[in-house]
Every structure is written in structure tokens, then in C-alpha cells.
Amino acid sequence: MSPSNGGTGVDTLTGLALGSGTSNFTAVTYVPITSFTPVLNFGGSPTGITYSTQSGYYQQIGNVVYFGIELILSSKGSESGSATITGLPVAAASLDTEGTALVQNVTLTPTNLYSYYQISNATTTVLLYQNTIAGVQSALADTNFANNSEVFITGLYFV
User: How many CB atoms neighbour CB 143 within 10 A?
Assistant: First the structure.
């Protein structure tokens, strides 16, 4: 079967990258939408944290991972320290990735405008931050969260 795009791009049926001709195929990693279990940590520990909703999904196409995380707490547990989410299914490449994180029922410092996430180089951990209008960032921590806090993140990163 000859591709309709003249032999360039990705064959959407097979997930294979097409070269200059139909005999020059390169395999492209393809993972269909798959669930995973994200885990909220404070100071690196999830001790005592319980959820009414704890879900994640991802899809990998080539070197891009698309993902979504939904965490709704029923108890924030007893640990203290910076908030992180562990359990991404594939480690990020050597690039920092950032995006907006929707957090609800949390207390941000009054001068902070928004929250965001960062995935650091070669990790499977999401870091959670708040940012001021002046661009000063600080980590979200257990003191920002309540027993009914919610975290929603959708984004992508490179592997």
C-alpha cells in the first residue's frame, strides 16, 4: 500500500515513520492511551494521603508523551515538605518541561497568581510550584493543601 502523502510523515495505521520511499521504514514508539497511578508526595513521602480520585493516563507517539493527572484528596496525610507527584510512566528527556497545573482548594500565597508543574531532566516526577506576577517561584507544599484539595494536569513532554 502506498502512502497518500508521497512517502513522508507517519503512517497512521502502523505508527511507522515513512522515509523517502515505501521501503525505508523506521519504527516509531507508539503506546496507545494507557492508565497509570500518580502519587502525591509531601517531602518525598505519601504517608497518610488518601484519595477520592487518583488517576492518570498517557499516550506516547514517537518521542512525545501526552499525559493527564487527576488527584482529589480525601486526606492530605501527615507529611510535610514540597509537593511532588511521582509515577509518570516514562522518564522525561534531558529538557525541563513546564505547564499550567489547575489546583483547587489549596491556599496560594496572596501575591501568587497561578500554579504550574515542572518535569525535570530524566525523571518521572512532577514538581508543583506557585508563581508571582514578578516571576518569583516557590514550591507548593503540604501547608498549601487541605484534605479536599484537587490537582488536574494535562500536558506533554519529550522522552
Answer: 12
Give me the phi and psi of 93, to 5 degrees please: -75, -175
Q: Which amino acid is at 68?
A: G
Q: How many CA atoms lie within 13 A of 46 on its CB side?
A: 14
The number of folded domains in the chain is: 2
The answer on 81 and 130 residing in a single domain is: yes
What is the pTM assigned to this prediction?
0.81
- Tens-place pLDDT, residues 1-59: 444 444 445 555 555 555 545 555 567 899 999 999 999 999 999 999 999 999 999 99
* Cα torsion 75, 136, 65, 121: sign: negative
Q: Are residues 21 and 52 in the same domain?
A: no
pLDDT for the residue numbered 12: 53
Boundaries of domain holding 69:
37-158
Closest alpha carbon to 19 in 5, 8, 3, 30: 8
CA separation for the pair 132, 144 (Å, rounded):
15
